[in-house]
Amino acid sequence: MGIQKPAWLDALYTQKFFVACSFHENAKKNEKNICCLDCCASICPHCLPSHRFHRLLQVRRYVYHDVVRMEDLQKLIDCSNVQPYTINSAKVVFIKKRPQNRQFKGSGNYCTSCDRCLQEPYIHCSLGCKVDYVLKHMKDLSPYLRTCNSLQLSPDFLFPQDMGDDEMTNETPNSTIVDSDEPMSSWSGSSGSENMMSMACTEIVRKKRSGLNYVCARSASNYKVSDEDMATSMISRRKGIPHRSPLC
């Protein structure tokens, strides 16, 4: 009796990709774009720590259909006679059938399963079309299957920016926010006048278009100005009283 579809092939054909991962609902970049061939499941990039030693196949999107790189798929199954397409200088193969209704089938090269017009010399428009064709006519898929013990993601796979080393090791990341029970208006080590100076500098920067061109120090603790000096500076930069010429 011939070998039917292997479990990983059936999962690649039936699993849903590019949907939100139910285990990482609140994480960014949580679309399922990876197929774990050992678990026969679709996973998202945040699931990788639990599958790091498994065979992983990246699934891509092309004209609203799921595709995989031919270079990766050839390690698992013979993809000859399946028409490839080019995405970012890499050849890809459609996973599922793409039926095309044709009332009048003229001369040309068409897919063996879904009657889609193809280029010469290809006779299958997708991996699913070839598998169905082989099982229907040869009853045995084993001559086309290849042994693959290791399959990693391609170098161009993009990991989410918020997925750091702490997440890869399943550890809770350390907080980068200073923990304090005090309100933000009363910072430790800063006097009230320094806080007022910092707020004044911020207000001056916002009013730069009004002609106030003050330069604030980087740190309020290193730049202390008394209220008297600040008032004198403000007065000295006011416009003088205009003097009109006497009437003749």
Automatic annotation (TrEMBL):
Region (Disordered): 169-194
Biased composition (Low complexity): 183-194
One Pfam family matching this protein: PLATZ
Top-level lineage group: Eukaryota
InterPro entries tied to this protein: PLATZ
Name by which UniProt lists this protein: B box-type domain-containing protein
